[in-house]
Design a protein that fits this description.
mainly alpha, 5 helices, elongated
């Protein structure tokens, strides 16, 4: 399996899993926009995870913008938008997929295993 295919699979999971958890609650009305700002900080454990995710998102945004410009990755701005629309997992894996596609002519493919 090529690395770009792994990133694509992780991107698909990064879209499906968060939306599968969120959409049913959104459509039945049990989640409101207010919940996005209160629930993540309601308990120290959830606040820990929220702060960690916010820092990871900030790092991912900086990496995607700098690396996208440096390597002249086509459409590198799409994953930047995905951070805010879906989440960091989907955005970063999609950026890494685009990066691999852009590097493919120069690097061919990087094997995941040593087989």
């Amino acid at each position: 399996m090529k690395l770009k295919h792994l990133y694509l699979i992780l991107f698909i999971l990064g879209v499906i899993l968060p939306l599968a958890a969120f959409m049913p609650a959104y459509f039945d009305g049990t989640v409101t926009m207010k919940d996005f700002f209160t629930v993540p900080f309601a308990h120290p454990a959830s606040a820990f995870l929220t702060y960690d995710l916010l820092v990871a998102a900030a790092v991912a945004l900086v990496f995607m913008i700098i690396e996208g410009r440096r390597l002249k990755i086509k459409n590198y701005w799409l994953p930047v938008i995905l951070v805010f629309l879906i989440g960091t997992g989907a955005a970063l894996s999609f950026f890494l997929y685009l990066r691999e596609v852009g590097l493919s002519p120069a690097v061919k493919s990087l094997p995941i295993s040593n087989k």
